[in-house]
Amino acid sequence: MEKNGKQRFRALRVIAAVLANLTAILSANYITFYILDHFNPGFHFVVRSEFILTKYLHFVIPVLMLLTALLYLLLYVGGGLKAKKLNKKRLIVIFIVDVLLAGAFAMTVNARAFGWVKWLRPADNAPVAIATMPPKSTEAPTAEPTAEPTPEATPETLSQTTPDSTANPDLPTLEPTEEPTPEPTPIPGLLGNKYKEKFADGQPFSTEPNTSETLADGTTRTLIYTFAGKNAAFELYQCTNGKIKYQVADVYVRDISKLTAAFEKDQNKTKKIRAFAEESGVLIAVSSDYFAANANDEGLIIRNGFMIRSNPCRHSDLCVIYQDGTMRCFDCKKDKIDNNEILGSYPYHSFYFGPSLLDENGAAKTQFNSSLSGPNPRSVIGYYEPGHYAFISVLGDYNMIDYNGKNLGNSGSPGMTFAELSTLCASMGMKAAYNLDGGRSIGMYWNGKLFGHNMRAIGDIIAVTD
After folding, report:
1. How far apart are CA 168 and CA 234, in angstroms?
2. Which of 10, 28, 208, 358 is the most buried (most CB within 10 A)?
3. How many CB atoms lie under 10 A from the CB of residue 95?
4. Each residue's pLDDT tens digit, 293-313
């Protein structure tokens, strides 16, 4: 009986030791990943991946801690801990083993997630040009046969047949017919004659109005910069609501090619927003989706009408901007995303990050399937109609780095939750809105200035050029 008791305690001690070591290993990795979040922009893909337990670490670790504590309590109450003493030497060995295992686990996850081992991360193929949307038909309508026209009366005939009102006062006096006002000539492009006052007829020009207004929700909105060119225009607003600080760019483009992207396919060749913008010669830019750091090489990635990647979309929502200027967001949990169908519909850009912020009716969403839905710095691309878009950059509780790399100190802004961001986009009247890469990546560049954290290099930007 005593032997069976020792065997029983021995099994419990083994199970408790395994749970304790596993808890230590996973805890070490959780801390490692948290630290990486400060330095590696791909962390958000690791925590959302299904590789081993990374997606559920914050649930698994507390459960393991509880089970381990209960087993050791059971062993203590039953006297099982007296059978085996843990001396200093044994504890040091256990600690070293745990650290080595934790390091191996962390290296394996990061090698898979960040592409440190090339054979674990298949290379993207060369960009493939997507077919250009055929132009709208401008053929003249086929003439319908008409009846023979009635011969017009000559002036002599008119003078003879026109009733004399003076001779017969009951007859109405004929008024001269007014010439119809000619319709304005349509302007080619996505917007036609709409918003034509936003654009410049001649040389591009910019202004710095610095005019403020208070909105119904208490937001102070200041128009700080405007640009008007032949094919692109935007108005830039600085907004403050309580402690929350953000910028909104109201963007108009006549040609979808003016809503452009600059990117690096290799995540080891990252740049700050300023470098991307200056090298590309764009007018205004925000951080994009950093597709090169995607842990699972997932998603349909299209930039400037070229397909870079066409892999399944499993975990993130997809945003597509088509050549006709329309923008649509696909919910990966609700919609079956057919890459071939999208590719056959003339896309120009696609982003794989998310989530999408509005429903199909343009109303704010309330539920988001994301572990990153708390207050954070955010970047957004919004859509009103073909040719009319918006960029949003929301500051969070981090330092701000200016255009010249100077640290301006903490922003004092708490950031926004997905729910708050969704409500903001809906209140602005957007039909669709999509969350892009946030955190320390965010920044809004314009006219040699920078608003944002810009604390780490990124892989791509979405921008406007004239």
Report:
1. 65
2. 358
3. 11
4. 775 678 899 999 999 998 888
